Amino acid sequence: MQIIVFDLETTLTYQKDKIPEIIEIGAAKVVPGKNGVEVDTFQRYTFPAIERRISERTRKFIGLDKENMPTFIPFRRAFAEFMKWIGNDSEYYLCTWGQDDKRLMIEHCARFGLDFNWMRNYNDIQPPISLLLADRKQMSLKEAIDTAGIIQEGRLHSALVDAIHTAHLLIKYNKTVHLKENTPVENYNLSSSLYITCRSCKKSKYYTAFGRKSRRCEACLQHRKKLEKAAEAAAVQQS
User: Fold this and answer.
1) 114 and 204 in one domain?
2) Mean of the pLDDT values across residues 166-184?
3) Which superkingdom is the protein from (predicted)?
4) Which of 30, 41, 154, 183: disulfide with 3, CB 3.0–4.6 Å?
5) How far is CA 4 from CA 24, 70, 90, 214, in A?
6) Per-residue pLDDT tens over the stretch 191-200
7) How far apart are CA 163 and CA 169, in angstroms?
């Protein structure tokens, strides 16, 4: 089966209630074998439907030249072209470096009412390669390619460049990474993790409103800190 490695870049969000929007889809097709061979690439830039602009911070982060900006197209069109590029053959694996891009793609498909049936045989290859290279489950892509001795080509934080480097890691360690098969239904169930119920306020909020290790939303955590500071100040006054 062919392997499709994809990567996404999004708008930079600094407010917890804002949802990151995909602005670049990058992918590489890999044919599995003894050494593995990269065979084709895909790249599209998508215009953010909610934010309606590309901020200066986002532009600089993904390395876009202000004087030579690429053509941005609606997400629906970019997704349709991505599906056409994948092709009609249903026998393939999908791979990413970390699960954030899978979550983002599922969220966008749900938001735009797009088909989920293509999301099959998904594999996060970050844990097995990170365990091999650094004896831990999570490494940055930059750290992984440096440790693996893969020469960096292009600027990281471009979805296409990141997808190509992820493909190079998969090619190099294809004997270590054992890809699994799964169904669109199994992957669709991940959408339930897009919204989390806060333990404090009991409200269901989008996952970006929470810290990585907390089940309480940032608003409740900030309120809790204020109460703790007020209690400390009151204790000092009483003493």
Assistant:
1) no
2) 91
3) Bacteria
4) 30
5) 16, 24, 12, 33
6) 555 666 778 8
7) 10
